[in-house]
Design goal:
This protein is an alpha/beta fold. Helix content is 39%, strand content 18%. Keywords: Flavoprotein, FMN, Oxidoreductase.
Length: 183
Amino acid sequence: MKIALINGTIVGNKTKTLLQETEKFINDVSDKYDTEIINLEDYDMQFIDGRPNDQYNDDMQKLIKQVEEADAYIIATPIFQGSIPGTLKNLFDGLSPRAMRYKPVSIVANGGTQQHHLVIENQLKPILNYFRCLVTPNYVYSHTNHFSTQGELIDEDVINRLKVLANVFVEYIEMSKNLPTED
């Protein structure tokens, strides 16, 4: 099974750090999954404007295909101006409405204030519910103060929550194997 760990921004390093830690904990739980970190900054992204996907550049076509072919997802996002980044929303706009159906998804996020965790509840979860994803009930929200000045994750509580998230996520993957891919 392919797990796509998606870094939903093109700037900064905190979400990359969260994804790397999460990937490590998933592999600690089970080594039978093929994990891949997808950094949106590595793609020449185009604005999704409703054209058929084959009319976008090669990078957008590759990115959309990579995401749609995954069996499970960890979505990492910073919170900017009380919202998810436009790059992440743009990626979602390019996906088929059935691409993520009944596939497990866990969320890790980082923001500048403690209240920004509400963006996960009010913006990201509704998008994932539209896709009918199996969103794990536990997400991990981190704050700028949970990182060292060098960008290392230093908060033990966040690290422990990432470990728990990895365990729950793997259980959701196993559960999803018995579900239909279409309805």
